[in-house]
């Protein structure tokens, strides 16, 4: 059993429920309307919600006659607003098993593809900030899309903050596993309800159905 110097966690799908796809689609529709596109092709909505790259965003905006920067500013602002409203209304919540993170002796951090400001809100709103020594999300810019997972950029920044070489990253997507591998650390894939049947083309170091299972693995416990 590896003795880890730190444990890092994804945010959406690990600490809190992931955003609803339709909520993200509506925020994206609103962004298009804000920059003057009232009738948007569904394939463009789907591409953005699925996780658009910089090149894909630029091509999409070119097809719509838009400048990518103001469109993306509107999309990120409205997407974040929709997320905060979902948390405040109770439509999105924190998973019950997050409290087990307190059982870990290692310093912990959060690394997310969500906005840094949204992650900050989540940690404060749910009282999770004391659990984590560092946290990273991406800035609300077009350029930040180049840095999101599976790019290990923010994982490496968190590891530097924690002065850790041996670490475990806990996530719920294939890109989390790939990012951990690129950062040279182990990964744990949590099969929450939304990804229980996911088929991965990469193999995580560990798998579990809950955070409690992962914490037991880190502690070397089988109970």
From TrEMBL:
<dbReference type="InterPro" id="IPR006439">
    <property type="entry name" value="HAD-SF_hydro_IA"/>
</dbReference>
<dbReference type="GO" id="GO:0006281">
    <property type="term" value="P:DNA repair"/>
</dbReference>
<dbReference type="InterPro" id="IPR036412">
    <property type="entry name" value="HAD-like_sf"/>
</dbReference>
<protein>
    <submittedName>
        <fullName>HAD family hydrolase</fullName>
    </submittedName>
</protein>
<dbReference type="InterPro" id="IPR050155">
    <property type="entry name" value="HAD-like_hydrolase_sf"/>
</dbReference>
<keyword id="KW-0378">Hydrolase</keyword>
<dbReference type="InterPro" id="IPR041492">
    <property type="entry name" value="HAD_2"/>
</dbReference>
<comment type="similarity">
    <text>Belongs to the HAD-like hydrolase superfamily.</text>
</comment>
<dbReference type="GO" id="GO:0008967">
    <property type="term" value="F:phosphoglycolate phosphatase activity"/>
</dbReference>
<dbReference type="InterPro" id="IPR023214">
    <property type="entry name" value="HAD_sf"/>
</dbReference>
<dbReference type="Pfam" id="PF13419">
    <property type="entry name" value="HAD_2"/>
</dbReference>
